[in-house]
Design brief:
By secondary structure, the chain is mainly alpha-helical. The chain folds into 2 domains: 84 residues, Alpha-Beta Complex (Topoisomerase I, Chain A, domain 3); 61 residues, no CATH class. It is 48% helix and 8% strand. The chain has 8 helices and 3 strands; from the N terminus they run αβββααααααα. The chain has a 3-stranded antiparallel sheet with strand order 1-2-3, with helices on one face. Strand 2 and strand 3 form a beta hairpin. Helix 5 runs antiparallel to helix 6 and helix 6 crosses helix 7. The chain starts with a helix and ends with a helix.
């Protein structure tokens, strides 16, 4: 959540067709993250068609601050959940930002990403700059179905 709060406009390279952000506020774990279209398009619209304070160096601003703080993000998420319909509540009622990180890590592993690739994207980096595999492994527990699918690939 702190990477979002501290993201500077100069580090958001968002165009109509491609986009990436340079993040790494927490613990100096800087990295460049490419954005999928579902994230890039609304961010492009937000940056180029209003919604933020153009005088702020930060991407996400608030009425009270030059940037949307971590507490502001948490407040926004609570408000979003309060206004959710019954069907939406079943999807977001007990979800935290940390849950979203776990979900991303799990989905990335299901899509075939290596632990090193997931570690990079999540910012799980050791002091020596290497991927923190043990930390990432906690985020990406494999399912029985994944193992079952791989078992079928074994010859013997």
């Amino acid at each position: 959540m702190s990477d979002v709060s501290w993201l500077k406009a100069a580090h958001a390279h968002i165009g109509p067709k491609v986009g990436w952000v340079h993040v790494g506020h927490k613990g100096n774990k800087e990295r460049d993250l490419d954005l999928v279209n579902a994230a890039r398009r609304p961010l492009h619209a937000y940056l180029h068609h209003g919604g933020r304070d153009p005088n702020s160096p930060f991407v996400f601003t608030s009425q009270r601050n030059a940037r949307l703080t971590e507490a502001g993000n948490a407040h926004w998420w609570r408000r979003l959940r309060v206004t959710a319909t019954k069907d939406e509540w079943e999807l977001v009622g007990d979800v935290t930002f940390h849950d979203l990180r776990h979900d991303f890590g799990h989905r990335a592993r299901e899509a075939g990403w290596s632990l090193e690739e997931v570690a990079y994207y999540l910012g799980h980096i050791t002091r020596r700059g290497l991927p923190a595999i043990a930390t990432t492994a906690r985020y990406t527990q494999v399912s029985r179905e994944q193992v079952k699918d791989k078992l079928a690939l074994l010859k013997g």
